[in-house]
Every structure is written in C-alpha cells, then in structure tokens.
Amino acid sequence: VDLFSKTLILIPLHLEIHWSLITVDVSKQSINFYDSQGILFKFAVDNVMKYILAEAKEKKQPDFQKGWKMVINKTIPQQKNDNDCGVFVLE
Q1: Residue 85 is a catalytic residue
Q2: Bridge-partner residues for 21, per DSSP?
Q3: In the annotation, is 35 catalytic?
Q4: Amino acid 9: pLDDT
Q5: DSSP-derived secondary structure for 2-15
Q6: Which of these is catalytic: 14, 25, 35, 63?
Q7: Mean pLDDT across 26-50
Q8: H/E element, 48
Q9: Is 23 within 8 Å of 8 (Cβ atoms)?
Q10: Sign of dihedral through CA atoms 26, 70, 42, 72?
Q11: Are 23 and 9 in contact (CB under 8 A)?
C-alpha cells in the first residue's frame, strides 16, 4: 500500500484496557492524537512518526521525509466514565 497516496490514515490504538486514536493527515504532514480521557501515549505517536519517516525513505518519497508535525488534540469531548473510550474512537 502506498501510504502517501492516501489523504487520511486512521490508526485506532488499544493499550490493554483503553482506546485512543492516531490520525495521519498526509496532505498536511500532520500526525494527530486523540484521547477521550486526556491521556497522552507519546511513545505511540513517536512510533507512528518513525514508521512514516522510514516508509518515506524506503519508498523514495523525499517530500515526505521531513516537515511532519505532531498535534495533541486536547479540545475533544471527554468521557465521564471508564467504559466509553471505544465509542469515542469510533465517533
């Protein structure tokens, strides 16, 4: 799959008992993190960044080998319990 031909890549993230979402906006070269409990799994965002950069290098895509930014979205709705994170990811 040529990731760089896509507009938006959705990566649901499940860590033991909690779901979050990472999106890769290819056109804006932006990796976005969303979490309905305000938890930041920075290592996961870092790993996606490393993967994207490695994929750009391997696929000889110089336009995508630099200029990426990480965005932590803190203005999203927050869940009021410990059960709804999966629903928030789907929304």
Answers
A1: yes
A2: 12, 34
A3: yes
A4: 97
A5: -GGG-SEEEEEEEE
A6: 35
A7: 94
A8: helix 42-58
A9: yes
A10: negative
A11: yes
At 72, which amino acid appears?
A: I
Collapsing DSSP to helix, strand or coil, 26 comes out as coil
Write down the pLDDT at residue 70: 94
Q: CA quadruple 9, 46, 21, 69: dihedral positive or negative?
A: negative
Q: At residue 16, does pLDDT exceed 90? A: no
14 catalytically annotated = no
Write down the pLDDT at residue 22: 96
Catalytic residue among 2, 18, 63, 84: 18
Are 73 and 40 in contact by the 8 Å Cβ rule? The answer is no
Tokens 């928030």, residue located: 88
Kindly tell me the sign of the dihedral angle through the C-alpha atoms of 74, 21, 5, 47: positive
| pLDDT of 82 over the 90 cut | no
